[in-house]
Every structure is written in structure tokens, then in C-alpha cells.
Amino acid sequence: MDVIEKALQIASKAHQRQYRKGTDIPYIAHPVAVGMLLMKAGYRDEVVAAGILHDTDEDTDYKLKDIKHDFGEEIAEIVAGCSEPDKSLSWEDRKEHTIEFLKNASSDIRAVACADKLHNIRSIIKDYERDGDEVWQRFNRGKEQQEWYYTNLVESLRHQGSFSLVEELEKEVIRLFKR
């Protein structure tokens, strides 16, 4: 079995019975979409697999030690780089950490993190077009804080130079917040 198929199977089981925030969409749609964005952008199979697995450590019982055992050090490191290290911190502190960390992260970690945020913001745009400002009610922080976070993420992700996914993310950030 190739690494992408294995990641799909494991992530599907790990995210079973989970749904996207405020929707009835099975959660697995998000990691699969992240993997598809990475695949479409031409990333290696290991990066695509890490994209599919990126939320398992934070949101399921399938942890980094399991990823390392089943997929190896490289994929585990990419997933670790896309995970918030300390969920006990405030939302602001966690987001500031992410922004700072991604400035100097490896290109693979930045690609997976960017694909994750790109799919998230596209989902928000779709929901915003349907529900209007009510969409901001499902987040811990409102529109202004989300705009701050996504705007700073774009700058952080391009700190080492621009790449196609961050260009797409910037367009979507402008589309959502500069209406």
C-alpha cells in the first residue's frame, strides 16, 4: 500500500464521527482536501500524506508516536510542525506561536500548514456567502481576530520566499476580509 492510501485509511478511521465546526460535513473532508491541494501543487507523496494526517495528533487518539511508528520520522516531523504545542495557552498566544514558528519552518511544514489554512479559509468563504456575518459566531474569536491571524500567517509563510499555495492563500484572505 502506498503512503497516501495508508494515510487516507488511518486518517479516516481516526477522524470517524467527527464533523467540521458548525456543520454536518464529516471532518475527514478537510484532511483529504489538504492532501489534494498539496498533490495538485506537485508536492512529494510524503508531504501529501503528512497533509492528510496533519490534524490527527491534535484531534484524535492517533498521536505523533503512532505516526512515527507507521510512517517514519519525516512525516511525523511535518505533522508535529503543523500542530499547536500547548493547547492550554490562550488563543492569541497559540496563534502568535504559530505565526512565529512558521517563519523559519521547513518548506514541507510551511506547505502543509498553508494548504490547511487555504482549505479552512475557502470553507469560511463558502459559509460566509451562505450565512453572512453569522459565520463568525462559530469561532472562538471574531472576524477582526481572524483577519489578524490570517493576514499575519500569509506574511509568516512567505518569510522565506513565496510559493504557489501562499499566493492562493493571500488571494483568499483578501477576498474574505477586504469585501
From TrEMBL:
Please indicate which superkingdom the organism of origin belongs to: Bacteria
Q: Which residues form the HD/PDEase domain?
A: 23-130
Which Pfam families does the annotation name? HD_4 (PF13328)
MF annotations from Gene Ontology: guanosine-3',5'-bis(diphosphate) 3'-diphosphatase activity
Q: What SUPFAM superfamilies does this protein map onto?
A: HD-domain/PDEase-like (SSF109604)
Cited InterPro entries: HD/PDEase_dom, MESH1
Q: What is this protein called?
A: Bifunctional (P)ppGpp synthetase/guanosine-3',5'-bis(Diphosphate) 3'-pyrophosphohydrolase
In its UniProt entry, the species of origin is given as Neobacillus rhizophilus
